[in-house]
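Ligand-bound model needed. zinc ion.
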Amino acid sequence: MSTLAPVSITHWCRNCNAHHALQQVRRCVPAPTSLNGEVDVLICPSCNSYDIEELQEVSDAQ
Ligand SMILES: [Zn+2]
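Prediction:
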């Protein structure tokens, strides 16, 4: 399997200083207190930190 979809790095982990795409850090978790029954949270796939910051300036260049 191959994923050819372009990935833009838009999020930064303040804990381990790694950069990730939104799809890498976004997790859907059950939240019984939420109206939808679930919420989106941002978790670093490298260190499992919740300290994720969204980058304001996004460059297409690698
Ligand atoms: Zn991290």
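The pocket of zinc ion is lined by residues 13, 15-16, 18, 44, 46-47, 49 (CB under 6 Å).
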